[in-house]
Structures are given as C-alpha cells and as structure tokens.
Design goal:
This protein is mainly β. It has a single domain, classed as Beta Barrel (Thrombin, subunit H), CATH 2.40.10.270. It has one helix and six strands. A six-stranded antiparallel β-barrel has the order 1-2-3-6-5-4. The termini are far apart. The mean pLDDT is 91.
C-alpha cells in the first residue's frame, strides 16, 4: 500500500520539572523532529467499541517506518499536542493519537 497525503508535522517530547513535593509537573514540549504522516479521524466499528463516546478525541495516523516515532511521544496537530498510542508495525505503521492539550 502506498501512502498518500503525507504532510510534515512536529514530533515532540514532554518536558517535566520536579515541584516542591518531588512530583513531576509538565512544563512544556520540546520539538524533536519533523515527520511526514497522514492523519485521519478515527472511525470504524472496532474503534467505536474501543473508545466509545471519546472517539472524537482520537485520530488515526499512517506513516512509513521511522525509528524516531515511539509510543509516548507527541505529535502537534491542529495546534494541539496528541499522545502517540501503541504502534502497529506492518509495511507501513498505523497508530492512534489522543488529544492531550
């Protein structure tokens, strides 16, 4: 399968700082790289069963294999950071992202 509509997006990692009680507090995001991916709204019967009413907070991402992309990083999409969920690694990679901020 050839991927189409690949667009550049910023790949980011979260930056944390310890507060007075030694808890990690999110202070922002640091850009790691720019990656080419195709982002589409999450949909389908299985996704509805998996996410339920919160399906509007999720998108599905398609991309070619890239070692920079790992679970737990963030992609900036539509001005918000989205958390990368587990990656399905085939000839191309497919994963969901969830709106965080």
């Amino acid at each position: 399968m050839r991927l189409r509509n690949l667009k550049p997006y910023k790949l980011k990692k979260a930056l944390y700082e310890l507060d007075d009680e030694r808890n990690q507090v999110l202070i922002g995001y640091e850009e790691i790289a720019t990656i080419d991916v195709d982002i589409q709204p999450a949909g389908g019967h299985l996704k509805i069963q998996q996410y339920g009413k919160e399906i509007t907070k999720y998108h599905t991402v398609f991309c070619y294999p890239n070692e920079l992309i790992v679970e737990g990083l963030y992609i900036e999409y539509e001005g918000k950071c989205h958390l990368i969920k587990p990656i399905q690694k085939w000839r191309h990679w497919v994963f969901d992202i969830e709106v965080i901020s």
